[in-house]
Structure formats: structure tokens, C-alpha cells
Amino acid sequence: IEFVSSFVQQMNNVLLNSAEATQLRERLKNCIGLEGKGGKCKRRARLFHILISAFAHNLVATLSLCIWSGAYLTASTLLHQTDPLDLNLICYLEVDEFIELLERPLFR
Fold first, then answer.
1. Distance between CA atoms of 5 and 26, rounded to whole angstroms?
2. Which helix (H) or strand (E) holds 6?
3. Is 64 exposed, middle or buried (0-12, 13-18, 19+ CB in 10 A)?
4. CA–CA dist 91, 85 (Å, integer)
5. End-to-end CA distance of the chain
6. CA–CA distance from 9 to each of 40, 60, 97, 99 (Å)?
7. What b-and-e string marks burial along 6-44, b requiring 16 or more CB atoms within 10 Å of the CB?
8. CB–CB of 59/78 below 8 Å?
9. Could you report the per-residue pLDDT of 8-64, keeping only the tens digit for each?
10. pTM confidence score
11. Can you state the percent helix, strand and coil of the chain, rounding each to 5?
């Protein structure tokens, strides 16, 4: 499971940092918080649900996907259900990297 978690973390880094993923980032940005019931909104929400299934193997990647997509309630629920005793040093380092990422202009 460590391999899968590391792989998901790398996918998250590519999603949030690479120029090649710009279109995907734009489609995902605030896709859950959008008002409206049009087909475009539903497709974006479906994309989020597909990605969150894959990203669920890594807490920090899941949180960043939720925050980027505007799924703040999902992120909050995930944090409240996480037992701090289950977290290891690697997870805390990933959280630290995520906080640094939140401070960048990308999330503003």
C-alpha cells in the first residue's frame, strides 16, 4: 500500500504543478462548488468522483483534490474521520509540502 500511496502522491504533484495538466486543473477547479445543473457541471463533478476514487489511497492527495475542486465539506469530513495516531512521519511531511503548496499563487 505504500507504493500506491507514493504513486498517488506523484500523480497529485503532476496534476498541481505540471504545465501539461493545465486543462485538467481548469476543468476541476471549483467543479463541486459550481451552481447549475448543466451537462458541463455534471461532467466535471463526474471527473472529480473518478479522481477521488484513485486519490483516496493518499490522505494529502485527496485533501488537495478536494480543496482544488471546491469540495470543502468532503475535505472537512475526511479530516475529522482521520485518526492522528494512524498518521506516520511521511504523512506529516506530505502535509507540510501541501501547506507550502497552499501558500503558492496556484491556490489563490
1. 24
2. helix 2-17
3. buried
4. 11
5. 33
6. 28, 8, 11, 14
7. eebbebbeebbeeeeeeeeeeebeebbebeeeeeeeeeb
8. yes
9. 999 998 998 888 999 999 999 988 876 656 677 888 889 999 999 999 999 999 999
10. 0.84
11. 80, 0, 20
CA nearest to 9, candidates 86, 71, 65, 67: 65
| Phi and psi torsions of 47, nearest 5° | -60, -45
> How far is C-alpha 73 from the chain's CA centre?
13
Pair 88, 48: CB distance under 8 Å: no
| pLDDT band per the 50, 70, 90 thresholds, residue 106 | confident
